Amino acid sequence: MPVQGxxxxxxxxxxxxxxxxxxALVSAQAGAPDxxxxxxxxxxxxxxxxxxxxxxxRIRLGPAAGSRGAVVELPLEVYVARVLAGEGxxxxxxxxxxxxxxxxxxxxxxxxxxxxxxxxxxxNGTHCQVPRAATAASRRSALATxxxxxxxxxxxxxxFYSASCGGHSESAGQVWPGINHPYLxxxxxxxxxxxxxxxxxxxxxxxxxxxxxxxFEGRLRDVRVEERSASGRAARLAVPGLSPNxxxxxxxxxxxxxxxxxxTAFAIERRGTMLHFTGRGYGHGVGLCVIGxxxxxxxxxxxxxxxxxxxxxxxxxEVAGSGAPASSAERTVPREADPPPGTEIxxxxxxxxxxxxxxxxxSLAPIAVRVHDSIESFRQAxxxxxxxxxxxxxxxxxxxxxxxxxxxDGLESAIRxxxxxxxxxxALAGRPRWVRVGAAxxxxxxxxRQPSEPGPEVRCPSDAELTLAISAAAQxxxxxxxxxxxxxxxxxxxxxxxxx
Length: 500
Ligand SMILES: [Zn+2]
Ligand SMILES: [Zn+2]
Prior knowledge:
By secondary structure, the protein is of the alpha+beta class. It folds into 3 domains: 18-159 and 287-320, no CATH class; 198-279, no CATH class; 332-498, no CATH class. The protein is 36% helix and 17% strand. It has a 4-stranded mixed beta sheet. It has a 4-stranded antiparallel beta sheet with strand order 2-18-6-7. The structure holds zinc ion (ZN) (2 copies).
C-alpha cells in the first residue's frame, strides 16, 4: 500500500524530572518543619500586585479536560491565593489556611510538567487544583507563606490533600497503585470523633447505569465490598453480573460521582434493589485533611505542626525568590536531553511507523514519544497505573520508563504496539475499545500476515476491562483477549477497518 509522502520521523521528547529550584532550606532540622518560620501574620487587604511581587515564577493555567478556555499565565502566589479560595474552608483559622497554602504551592511546583503535552502547566479542574476568586483571607495566607514548599530529597514533594479523611487518612499507594511515598501513609486522625456519618441511597439500576458509562457491560445483581484497605476504605468491590465483575474503590466512586459518593470509607447494606451507603469523610483521604487542619488550628496548632502531622518527614523550604525561569516548557521538557536512549527510541518508533503505515495504508506525522523517567511521571501525565505500559492518543505516546517496559514485552514491541494504536485510532473511532487495542497488538506482532482461519471463540473484553483493570494480571488477560477477538473478526472480514 502506498505510504503518504512527507512522513517525518517521530520526535522523541524525554520528560525530565520536573523540579523547581529549591535554594534556601528554611529548616535545618529534617523531618520537622520549623514552627518559627511560619509565625508570619499579614494584616490589611492585599492586592494581586503585592502577590505578584512575591512570586518566584508564573504558572500557565489551562482549561480542564473537556472544557474550553484560554491558557492564562498567573504569578505563582496569585494562583495559590485563588486555589486556596477554591479548596480551603473559608472559616478555618489562619494556621490551617497557611498549611493548605503551602500544600497547594507544593502541589503546583511538583506537577508543572503534568500538562506539558497540552501546552500549559496545570489545568483548572479537579484533575489538578480548582481556582476561585481570591478572598482577603486567601491572599493573606498566600503572602504569609510566599515561596514556601514542602520538599522530599531536596525537591518539591509529590503530595495530595483532601476535604476530610473522616478519622483515618489513606495511603497514596492505595488510591494510585505504584506510588509509595513514606510521608503519605494511612494514619488515624483523632479530630473527627464528633462527625456524623453521611448516608446515600442508590438503586442497583442507578449504579449499573453509572458503571455502563465507564465501560462495564451486563446486568448488575449486587454490589459488595470485597476487600478493605488498611484505613478501612473499600479497596475492591464485587459487581456480580457485570463484565468485569470487580472494580477498585476510587474508580467506583468516580463512576458514581465524587460529590455524590463522598468517599470510599463506606459500608453498604442492600435492601431489595436499594443500596444504602453509610460513610465517613469526603475525598480520597490522602495527605492533609482540610477539615482536620481547621480543627487543629482551632485548638492552637501552628501551620508547621499541622503539616508535620499530615506529611511526616517532609522538610519546609523556600523556592528561589526571584529570577523566574523564562519558560517552563523549555526548562521542563528539554528536547535534546539524553541523546543515547532518545536516539534508540526514535529509531524504533521511526522503523515501526514506516513498516506499519505500509501495512495499514495510514500514516501520521509527527508522532511524539514521551518516555517517562518514573512511574509517577507516567501516572501524572496519563492517569493510568503502572500496569498500563503505554498510552497512545492522537499523535502522542506516553511510555513507562524503558527499564520497566523492557521487563514486559520489550521496548521494541511496546513502541510498535503504541504506534500501531495511533495509526488505527482514527479509522476505528467510536468502536469498542477492544477493536483498537486488539488491532494494535495484532499488527504490531504479525504485520501484514493475515490469520489463515478464525481462532477459537473468545469473549471480547468490555471497555472497562481494558481501562479499569484492578491488577497487572487482569490488564494482560484483557489485552490478550482483545487481540484474539480482533484476529478472529479480521480473519472473517479481511478488512481491519470493518471490524466492530
Ligand atoms: Zn490537570
Ligand atoms: Zn482528617
